[in-house]
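Homework help board

Subject: predicted structure for assignment chain

Our instructor gave us this sequence and asked us to write out the predicted structure in token form, then describe one feature. I got the tokens but I'm not sure how to describe them. Can anyone check?
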Amino acid sequence: MRNIVVSLALAVLFSLPALAQEGYKAEIFGGYQYTRVSPGDGFGATNLNGWNASVTGNFRSWLGVTADFSGGYQTIDGFNTHMTNYLFGPTISYKFDRIKPFAHVLFGESQATASLEDLGAGNVSAFAMAFGGGVDAGVTRHLAVRLFQADYFRTAFNSEGQNNIRLSTGLVFRF
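My token output:
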């Protein structure tokens, strides 16, 4: 799985110079992320707070490919939980003056780490996918605010899988 993630990341990076000249060639997003995780197996849902960053290379004014990276964290009574995600896929969008709604379908890997103070950590990796979209509002030619990004976020840490929700907001730099 890790080789697939690395290959997709390299494909996104090496395709940036070949992008079309219309609209923005690339968009870089960074901001806050909230994830509602439903682990299953008798465990209750939990909330993770963290970061979300992505790079989108646009082939057309309405079509791009996105590399999305995120991390969520929580500590309760000395028990630390971390989830890191590496997702890639197509993004479609349409620009209305300063407002730009978008939708994406992303696939990749999720890594979860759990530790209890000084007792060490356990780490597992699983397939992950996100279906969703959001709205960016332009501030200047090269800066926008991501008003929201909402994703149905599915992970497969056990045979049943987990149905999660991921919400993000932040800044978008356009080039």
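Reply (TA_rk): Your tokens look well-formed. For the description, you could write something like this. Helices lie at 2-15. That's the kind of observation they're looking for.
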